[in-house]
Amino acid sequence: MIQSPADLPPLRDVIRRHGLSARRSFGQNFLLDMNITMRIVRAAGDLAGKTVFEVGPGPGGLTRALLASAAKEVVAVERDPRCVEALAELASVYPNRLSVIEGDAIETNAVELCDPPRAIIANLPYNIATPLLIGWLRDIQSYELLVLMFQREVADRLRAKPRTKAYGRLSVITQWLCDVRPAFNIPKDAFTPPPKVMSTVVSLRPHPAPRGNARWESLERITAAAFGQRRKMLRASLKPLGIDPTDADVDPTARAEELDVEQFCALARALEKVE
User: Fold this and answer.
1) Above 70 in pLDDT, residue 5?
2) Where are the extended beta strands (E) located within 187-255?
3) Which helix (H) or strand (E) holds 31?
4) Per-residue pLDDT reduced to its tens digit, 31-55
5) For residue 24, which of 106, 125, 101, 94 has the smallest C-alpha distance?
6) Is the pLDDT of residue 158 over 50?
7) 219 and 268 in contact (C-beta within 8 Å)?
8) Is the domain of 220 the same as that of 197?
């Protein structure tokens, strides 16, 4: 078995042999620099014994770095049949450690495919990054960690604090469930072809318990109403939901961007009482 990515054929050779020109329909921007892919894997810490779920591996740049780690197994989901064929060669080099599934990651249940303990490490296609994250957050206790690459604007929203422009629904939901830490930025010219924006790798580790007691559906409704009219005071933006912010000890003249996660959870609990 080949243990080092340095012993494998160069990725550019794999791309040429399989005709893997990046396609916009798949949201493809290939990351070929092994120094960067290895750095992404290091951001996850010790992967010994873990099953890693990867989305959109493309020609396998990050996949190679994952297989060079101590991860027990890598399960990769790829929509592009050309890439699936190229990855089959890699799977033959790492028998019983790489499973390649042709399919849509949005419709794929990682928990069913991966034995625990599980991690998700992926360079996410920008066009589906947020819906993928929301789906994983709904079942976040099934994972030990997520190390994901987003366009920088989305990464900024994930870690944004109250009273900042980037703070919004995604900030609240993510920070309610996870410790969010940016790892490092990746410049545009590191990709083939270069995207229009800079990327950021983010580490998300589930909290032992959510930061506030609330049901997902209620918190989602509260944040949608509050941030849907973020310049309005809460007494106006939440009025259609039939709740008074004072019932949650929240200032009714405050605006959505001023509240922390725990205050949104209090509003969500107030909503549950009137439903």
Assistant:
1) no
2) 191-192, 199-206
3) strand 30-31
4) 989 999 999 999 999 999 999 999 9
5) 125
6) yes
7) yes
8) no
| DSSP H/E element including 74 | strand 73-78
Using the structure block, give the residue that is written with the tokens 């994972």.
143
Tell me the chain's radius of gyration from C-alpha atoms: 21
If asked whether residues 124 and 146 sit together in one domain, one would say yes
pTM equals: 0.94
Q: What is the pLDDT of residues 91-125, one digit of tens each?
A: 999 989 999 999 999 999 999 999 999 999 999 99
Which of these, 121, 126, 120, 170, lies nearest to 140 by C-alpha position? 120
The one-letter amino acid at 209: A
Same domain, 36 and 79: yes
Distance CA 140, CA 235 (A): 32
In the block, residue with structure tokens 């009219």? 229
Cis preceding-peptide flag for 117 (omega within 30 of 0): yes
Element (DSSP H or E) covering residue 223: helix 216-228
